[in-house]
Design a protein that fits this description.
InterPro entries: ARM-like (IPR011989), ARM-type_fold (IPR016024), Armadillo (IPR000225). The protein is mostly helical. Helix content is 69%, strand content 0%.
């Protein structure tokens, strides 16, 4: 992990540079930056503005601290207009960068705003402005959240259950404090967040932005992105969202309400793909008509890149179930996937997801492999490899798709080889170290020569007893 320092440490070095080496403020700051970066220090949390240092190296009061002190004064005097203006200025300061937010956090901004939320929870205009400032403050700083804050924000979900504007802001704050923070996620879940979010999806189904931020928050609960925790609860949370929140049915029903809103459909699909972590969940989506619904929406909005990405992602996730694979093919899924890969052939992410989805659909299924080959899927895969030669993920997924297509149907090998598959795969093998296993598997199953390296070699010494 990168080293970190405090703002005070950085300021001391700048002051020393100016006092002892007679540097200008700009030179002193640049020298301090070079010193710390050469030592592997991450300076993202440090304000490095040379205009904040006086001629003697002393630092002026930071603008964010000035704004915060002014806000504290307004809050103590209970001047509503000044409070609104102070909250707005604090938000603008916090939106500048992480360093400003860290300074605000270290200056007790979290506690000041939390108390304001508590005091204004029945005053909607002030509450909304306070929440907006608090969202900006906690962007990238989930560690600021404390137990009191968790309980208060869940209380706000109930208190303002009929106010979509407040709900959106509260949920955005919860999402912010869950990103890269496993402890916060687990605490929220234990306090009943999943059931509350599921209820909001039902009660606010006509509110586009509320539906979107709620789906995003459900997704964050399934993340495993906190490097400080050896084992997260991502899988368990996904299972709870499905079993306790009945989320799959709710989300599939919502898909029917937003056929003309690609941005909403994209979030709904992304959420489903995070939740289908068990074979029976994939089956449940199919039993509720989800496959037809997803593929129809995919077809209708195939020109939309975001829909294409998320539809491919959710189809790939669902295709882990053998029955779903059959349903995807029967509902014209292969045609839609290949059409999307062709229409967006310059987009590496769609090429990668398309190849990965095809690889999942044809795995251990000769009938599906036949369908892909009859629709010239092999040509689409090789074209993707030609276009995205420098993208390791595209090359890897295309190799896997090729391997799965021919592993149980050797009659397709010649069709690939005639189009130059061997040289394309060998090029991917040379260019991308991360593609070694997949490229060798594809070459092996195509009947081509594979160069295998000896990973380690014994030294002809006896084993220790």
């Amino acid at each position: 992990m990168a080293k970190v320092i405090t703002q005070q440490t950085f300021d001391d070095v700048v002051r020393e540079n100016m006092a002892e080496f007679e540097m200008s403020a700009e030179e002193a700051v640049n020298d301090a930056k070079e010193q710390f970066q050469s030592q592997g220090v991450n300076l993202l949390n440090i304000i490095q503005d040379p205009t904040l240092y006086g001629a003697d190296g002393e630092k002026k009061e930071l603008p964010v601290v000035t704004v915060l002190n002014s806000l504290k004064s307004s809050l103590s005097e209970n001047n509503e207009q000044e409070i609104l203006e102070g909250l707005s200025r604090l938000k603008l300061e916090c939106d500048k960068d992480l360093a400003v937010r860290c300074t605000a956090g270290n200056s007790d901004a979290y506690s000041v705003l939390l108390k304001a939320v508590e005091n204004f929870k029945d005053n909607v205009p002030l509450l909304k402005q306070t929440l907006t400032a608090k969202i900006s403050l906690t962007n990238g700083q989930p560690d600021l959240l404390d137990n009191k804050g968790k309980e208060l924000f869940l209380e706000l979900l109930d208190l303002h259950s009929s106010n979509p504007d407040v709900l959106e802001l509260v949920i955005l704050f919860i999402r912010n404090t869950c990103i890269r923070h496993e402890e916060n996620r687990q605490s929220y879940v234990k306090l009943g967040l999943i059931e509350k979010l599921a209820s909001i999806l039902k009660s606010q189904r006509n509110q586009t932005t509320v539906v979107m931020v709620t789906c995003q928050t459900l997704q964050v609960l399934t993340f495993d992105d906190d490097i400080r925790v050896p084992f997260g609860q991502a899988h368990e949370h996904a299972k709870m969202i499905v079993t306790e929140g009945n989320a799959l049915k709710i989300i599939l029903d919502l898909c029917k309400d937003f056929p003309d809103k690609p941005e909403v459909m994209s979030e709904l699909f992304a959420t489903i793909s995070k939740l289908v972590v068990r074979n029976e969940f994939c089956q449940a989506v199919m039993d509720m008509g989800g496959i037809h619904l997803i593929l129809q929406a995919f077809q209708d909005s195939i020109a939309n890149k975001d829909i294409a990405k998320q539809a491919l992602s959710v189809t790939k996730a669902l295709a882990g179930n053998d029955n779903v694979k059959e349903a995807v093919v029967q509902n014209g899924g292969v045609q839609v996937i290949l059409a999307a890969m062709t229409k967006h052939q310059a987009n590496p992410r769609i090429a990668e997801l398309g190849a990965a989805t095809l690889a999942a659909i044809v795995l251990r299924n000769q009938g599906n492999s036949k369908q892909v080959m009859e629709l010239n899927g092999h040509q689409t895969l090789l074209q993707a490899m030609k276009i995205h030669t420098q993208d390791a993920n595209v090359q890897k997924q295309c190799c896997m798709a090729i391997r799965n297509l021919v592993s149980r149907a050797r009659e397709y090998c010649d069709l690939f080889l005639e189009l130059g598959a061997e040289s394309l795969i060998q090029e991917a093998q040379r260019n991308h170290k991360s593609c070694q296993d997949e490229s060798k598997a594809a070459l092996r199953d195509l009947g081509c020569e594979v160069h295998l390296e000896e990973r380690w070699k014994g030294e002809k010494q006896g084993l220790a007893q």
